[in-house]
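Sequence, please.
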């Protein structure tokens, strides 16, 4: 009986984490750059992703990154795409990289932590996912 309660708790926790992470999976509406070439590439990548052409979308964002390698929004876009592709370890790594360039943009950093949470949850790391979600929540309270 106790084992069943633990399984239900874990299932509920994982479901809650995944639902809160869904907000982190939506594309950002904030302009990611002032560079028209970068903006065009981001729009193109989002259109490709909408058509489920994830490999093409990844390549397009990587082209944009060559123009602005320190742009945290581009690293986050790339993390989202890898997460959608199911490459959870790469998504987590890229979201963490975005945080290295995010500076004091707490909203961007919180969204990155939600992406990390979703990647960890997808890999079955419930504890790691909860820790990442807690870091996101802490940033949002700033």
């Amino acid at each position: 009986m106790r084992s069943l309660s633990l399984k239900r708790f874990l299932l509920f926790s994982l479901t809650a984490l995944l639902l809160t992470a869904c907000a982190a999976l939506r594309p950002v509406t904030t302009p990611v750059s002032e560079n028209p070439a970068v903006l065009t590439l981001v729009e193109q990548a989002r259109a490709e992703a909408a058509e489920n052409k994830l490999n093409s979308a990844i390549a397009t964002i990587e082209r944009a990154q060559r123009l602005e390698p320190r742009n945290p929004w581009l690293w986050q876009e790339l993390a989202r795409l890898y997460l959608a592709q199911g490459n959870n370890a790469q998504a987590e790594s890229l979201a963490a990289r975005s945080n290295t360039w995010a500076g004091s943009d707490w909203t961007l950093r919180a969204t990155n932590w939600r992406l990390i949470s979703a990647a960890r949850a997808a890999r079955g790391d419930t504890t790691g996912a909860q820790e990442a979600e807690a870091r996101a929540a802490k940033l949002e309270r700033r």
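The radius of gyration is 16 Å.
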